Amino acid sequence: MSAILFPIAANAEQALSQPLGRAARERDAARSVGGDVVFTTEAVGPAFLDEAAALAAYVGRIADPGRRISPAGEDLYLRLAEQIDGRPRRPVEPIFAEGRRWPAPEEAPRTVWRLRISYWRIGSAERPLDAPQARKARRARDGAAIAADTLKAIASQPLRPVKPQQGLDIGLFEVRLPEAPHIIVPDE
Question: Would the pTM count as exceeding 0.85?
Fold first, then answer.
């Protein structure tokens, strides 16, 4: 299987319609634009009420197992994702009444299907607010309230670790000896 060739562009719309080039690796993308690039995935295009309508709109560009249509291996940078339309439901409080702990479930929120594109965004291009980690923002605010746009950006970004996770050096059924922690033995 060949590597996926992700588009290189300043924004998601440009990556979908007229990319500046395509590259599989960061160094290849940076070399082709002569600057820094950042790998990102964003929603682009209109929202569709059902998956069939979204698949029909992007026929040939994304994999459709029902029609047995699949783009070439290097063109697999697009996918469909289902997301909540509007605001998510508010948390419910337990009722502890009539032998029930939770109230009757509300109607499920309406969802829509959006096209998500993964691409190399040019590092110097205008980009959405890159928010700090929530933990760092709370500590650094020095008693001042966090700005609304920063709070919104923090809430919409995925969780990021404080530091990269270290690789596991022992297996599930292995243990270090207390008297010699440099020795790993199987646990029975």
Answer: no
Q: Which amino acid is at 76?
A: L
Rounded percentage of the chain residues whose pLDDT exceeds 70: 80
Check: CB of residue 177 under 8 Å from CB of residue 185: yes
Q: Is 180 exposed, middle or buried (0-12, 13-18, 19+ CB in 10 A)?
A: exposed
Q: How far apart are CA 24 and CA 29, in angstroms?
A: 8
DSSP, residue by residue, 69-109: B---GGG--EEEEEEESSSPPPPPPP--BTTBSSPPPPPPP
Average confidence (pLDDT) over 153-157? 72
Neighbouring CB atoms inside 10 A of 13's CB total 13
116, 54 contact by CB (below 8 A)? no
